[in-house]
Amino acid sequence: MRQYISFVWTTQAKAALYIIFFLCLFVGEVLSEEVSKPEYEKADKLIENQDYKSALKILLEYEKKKPDDDVLLFKIGFSYFRLEEDQKALLYFEKAIRTNPKVAKYYDYYGATFYFSGKIDEAEKQFLKCVELDPKNPMATGMLGAIYAEKGQLSKAKDYFLKALEIDPEDLRANYSLAGIYFSEGDLVKSQKYFEICYKLDPENYATVSYLIENLYRQEKFEEAEKYKRRLLQIRNSSKDPRITNLKYFRFDTFPIKEFVIVAQESFSKTGDLYYYYVFSVFDKSGKHLKNINLESSAILKENGLKYIIGMDLIEDGNSKHSTSNIAYPELPTYFELKSVLTEILEGKVKFPYSSSASPK
């Protein structure tokens, strides 16, 4: 059954920004018209309880008696929509619109069905019609923002997300999407503003906090980022989602060095005889993962009065070959020191003479 929890994340590939998310739709909207009619009461109750198959049995029988009842046709379409039977949903939304073309929400759901079917051009037409009839419709306005973002028309996308926030400043979808677009454009101040709003609205969202950390690192606001690192650990430890609880590292920065892209990660756990404090994953321009350069700690180092050493995992044919350098530290080096060492490594100025098969568990 199709779910309607707002959940957005963004990436940028060349000029296109792809946004994947689920639309917030409420059963209450379906029941908001003519619920007092006795012939709809049982079906309405079934829809309210999300028993759409049973509701359809009743509604389809009533359709035989009232084939031109637009509210009835819409409810049938909505039930198919929730069951992810998109072709049938499209048929009944179209019937409802043909019977009564003045109801904005019919176009809203018609557009949503097209969107989930991958027909974003058709979806765009229906959402535009919806906001023409109801300029204050928050869902259609936000969906237009999502469509234009997916098409790479980021200026129009931002306009519609901002309009959605004029309607509802606490629209999580619009705030998150704006934060993602500004982040991809490098406007870190505006991105931070909207991610912080998202955090206030949903402080348990792992992705929001992760993006905030990376945003703050790119602005070199390291102390502020530490607060969100602690929060991210709390979210991970209290989460019931294995995709989060099984994470060993979290991403906190991304930056270029020469022709490489570096993704910086930090370990959630910094204990044991052997662990990696930081992992800097090195990618080439095509996105191929070449190596990991690590800040490592081990019991042997500590026995020799040191805490950390620079190591490397070279990725070859999907396998990793570990080695260590001669660069070691008695205390945790600064982030700027580490970035300087990374540059020297990628310039070939640092040797890794010691090979090992050891890796943190």
Task: Please describe what this structure looks like.
The chain is of the alpha+beta class. It has helices at 27-30, 38-48, 52-65, 70-82, 86-99, 104-116, 120-133, 138-150, 154-167, 172-185, 188-201, 206-218, 222-238, 242-245, 299-303, 335-346; strands spanning 9-13, 16-20, 249-257, 260-267, 274-283, 289-298, 308-316, 319-329, 354-356. The strands form two sheets. A seven-stranded antiparallel beta sheet has the order 3-4-5-6-7-8-9. Strands 1-2 form a two-stranded antiparallel sheet. Strand 5 (274-283) and strand 6 form a beta hairpin. 35% of the residues are buried.
Return the structural class: alpha+beta
CATH superfamily annotation of the largest domain: Tetratricopeptide repeat domain
Q: Which parts are unreliable, with pLDDT below 50 for 5 consecutive residues or more? A: 3-28, 31-36
* Share of residues in helices: 40-55%
The total of helices stands at: 16
In CATH's first tier, which class of the largest domain applies? Mainly Alpha
CATH topology of the largest domain: Serine Threonine Protein Phosphatase 5, Tetratricopeptide repeat
CATH architecture classification name of the largest domain: Alpha Horseshoe
* Mean pLDDT level: 89
Major sheet? 7 strands, antiparallel
Which term fits the overall shape?
Answer: elongated
How do the helices and strands follow one another from N- to C-terminus? EEHHHHHHHHHHHHHHEEEEHEEHE
Total individual domains: 3
Strand content: 15-25%
The N- to C-terminal Cα distance equals: 38 Å
Major sheet strand order: 3-4-5-6-7-8-9
